[in-house]
Amino acid sequence: MSDDDREIDTLRKQIPSFACRSGCHDCCGPVTASSTEMARLPRKSSAARDAALAELSCTHLGENGCTVYDERPLICRLFGTTPRLPCPNGARPEVMIDPKVEQQIHWFARRTRQVLV
Ligand code: SF4
Ligand code: SF4
Fold first, then answer.
1. For residue 65, which atom of ligand 1 is closest to its CA?
2. What is the 3-state secondary structure (H, E, C) of 1-69?
3. Any residues with Cβ below 6 Å from ligand 1, and which?
4. Per-residue confidence at 93, pLDDT binned at 50, 70, 90?
5. Closest CA to ligand 1's atom 5
6. In the chain, how many domains are there?
7. Containing domain of residue 82, as a range?
8. Residue 52 binned pLDDT confidence (cut-offs 50, 70, 90)
9. Percent share of the chain, pLDDT over 90
10. What is the pLDDT of residue 96?
């Protein structure tokens, strides 16, 4: 396991979870992730990724929501847990993310090469 893998796992554990509106995936769209996170996701063809992008969607969004939920990137986990990325439907954890952890996630994103999921 690489240092980046360890950091991803440490950051994931510190992002509060919360219940989304049933069946909602309004915040899914084109997102970026580090290559280490990408390596944990199933590979998609360029055509599939282009088709999703053309619809401003994510290639891992299926009919019943995220198909890679357990390995979804940090940015997907961060959404809704900070006032800077609020859920448009008002869903949120009881306690929002610690701003220090949020900062660490942004530092991690800046330090790693981000690619379109
Ligand atoms: S965070 Fe909000 S917009 Fe995103 S899936 Fe959950 S309920 Fe929907
Ligand atoms: S990886 Fe999953 S949670 Fe993230 S944008 Fe794509 S479908 Fe949504």
1. 5
2. CCHHHHHHHHHHHCCCCCCCCCCCCCCCCCCEEEHHHHCCCCCCCHHHHHHHHHCCCCCCEECCEECCH
3. 20-21, 24-27, 79-80, 87-89, 91
4. very high
5. 25
6. 1
7. 3-17+25-116
8. very high
9. 98
10. 98
> CB of 114 within 8 A of CB of 33?
yes
Spatial separation of the C-alpha atoms in residues 108 and 28, rounded to whole Å = 21
Mean pLDDT confidence for 78-90 = 97
Buried b (16+ CB within 10 A) or exposed e, 48-74: ebeebeeeeebbbbeeeeeebeebbbb
| 95: CB partners within 8 A, 6+ apart | 16
Share the mean pLDDT of the chain.
96
Token pair of 64, please? 């019943």
pLDDT digits (tens, 9 = 90+) for 66-83: 999 999 999 999 999 999
Query: CB of 108 closer than 6 A to ligand 2?
Result: no
